[in-house]
Amino acid sequence: MQSHFAHFLDLNKGSLDRRIFSDPEIFELELERIFARCWLLLGHESMLPKANDFFTTYMGRDSVIVTRQADGTIGCFLNMCRHRGNRVCRADSGNARSFSCPFHGWTFGSNGALTNVPGYKEIYLEKLDLQAHGLVPVAKIDQYKGLIFATFDANAPSLLDYLGDMAWYLDMILDRREGGIEFLPGTHKWLVHTNWKFPVDNFIGDSYHGPVSHKSAWVSGFEGMPRRKSGYGYEGFQVCPGGGHGFGTRWAENREQVFEMALPEFLDYEKSRLEESIERLGNLRGLHFSPMHASIFPNVSLLWQGSAIRVWHPKGPKLTEAWGWCFVDKAAPDDYKREKALHMVQRHGTSGTWEADDVDNWVQCHGSSEGFVARQYPQNLEMGLGDEINDPHAIHPDIRGRLGKFQSEINQRSFYTHWAKLMDDTRAPQVPTVGAASQGATA
Known about the structure:
By secondary structure, the protein is an alpha+beta fold. The chain contains 11 helices and 22 strands. Strands 13, 14, 15, 16, 17, 18, 19, 20 and 22 form a 9-stranded antiparallel β-sheet that branches. Strands 6-5-4-7 form a 4-stranded antiparallel β-sheet, with no helix packed on it. Strands 1-2-21 form a 3-stranded antiparallel β-sheet, covered by helices on one side. The chain is globular.
């Protein structure tokens, strides 16, 4: 397929070509130009509390093993035996000093080194280069306040440079209290018959759908009325920090408004941590911003108050595997953590009230990207176009990035612009040298 992916997005009209959601050639290029280049979220350090703990996940469509190595650092390796390519680890998680391929028995240490080959003397005559046939490591692995990221591209910028100002805003969930956050045990996994970009798009900036899609949950009181307002135009912003990242936030003028936005079952805890949050984060991030939803490019999404974090694993042009976790402050009391886990399951779990609404929307929207006639008509992304907030510092001097109103598609336009920029970059990612040592991320 030819380049010029910027032509799929017309910023002057706010339109987006639907072919990017269904074309198999575009999907294959995404695996190379986005998922093999970008920093991708693997999980959280709380998932690896002990030496030799591991879990398996995906980077794009590549299965990887994430392990706490003997020296305490975290490594990440392609889950593929260097002999015939079989997966050396079939478990979701556990604790193991080594991984043995079930096909021919090649065995690898938790640091990726090839440690045993059956018949090494008798069959290979000790000529097989063991060092050159270890598990393939990622090019770079790093953490941001407990979140573990990795990339297969040695030319990728540092993780902090990649996150940019989004890291500063992530502190609103990662650094609100001393000790940071942890993931509660258990990974929710489910399949969605849609392209991976639809849910990312939804979480990065679609505050517009709530009063319609989730009206039944709000009217019934299941979502904790009267916190929710059913109309449009209420106070808040879409924040566009660049790099394809973005989030939406409500605006609180004072402490009373912060508490008004809290769900009743969590109000006491919100009151107990507010002063510490303001002290750690300042007034903008600790008091005035009450974040709602976010996406980190390319495939991570968060619901701040819902305590849900997601990774959207691309499985094909029209299939996505969603992985979700519940995050909480480490310092929070146990009863609060249990209530948060229940809240996430009921609303944002595989069969949650909100999830059912959203999944149906994404599946139906994806159908329009498959029909020949429907593809002749682009998506409309003009909401808020030309109506962005010209001077965000007039609202608060510490604001970073650009602002749109709470109902605005500024973040979607930024996401797809960044997507097109990477897709138009034809340079091949510099994948790790065979047998190279992994760059471990410190705890």
